[in-house]
Amino acid sequence: MPATAAGLPTTAATVDVAALPLRERPGRLLRSVAAELEARGALARSAAATSRQILRAALQADAGQQAQLRELSRAADAVRYAPEPPDAATLERASAAGAALLATLREPDAVAQGRP
Asked: Around Cβ 51, how many Cβ atoms within 10 Å?
């Protein structure tokens, strides 16, 4: 699948994320992951789920997905709360991890296999 310079897949679901400034991508991707988990009933519907709530909802995910989600949530939280934003390489890695996780969650067989 083609990818942007940031390594994000160029699907319709992520084109808007790839167009965002780098520091905004982790938060947007985390919100998209939360929406997917909500749609599956793995996360209670909430206007403002915290990173911890999202991580807890993904406990059924495999280790790779959990690692992707941890990396994404750490970067999103750091952008929002840390005195200094993460460096570009950290944001790129977190964005790529988040995009990969989101793509996995959106696979048609993800629900059938019981993945959150």
From this structure: 18
Q: How far is CA 10 from the centre of its chain?
A: 15
Distance CA 14, CA 23 (A): 15
Residue with tokens 């990969």, as numbered in its chain: 100
5-63 pLDDT per residue, tens: 444 444 434 448 989 999 999 999 998 988 888 888 777 776 666 777 777 766 666 78
Q: Where are the domains of the chain?
A: 15-105
Distance CA 116, CA 53 (A): 13
Contact 79, 86 (CB under 8 A): yes
pTM exceeding 0.90: no
The DSSP output letter for 87 is P
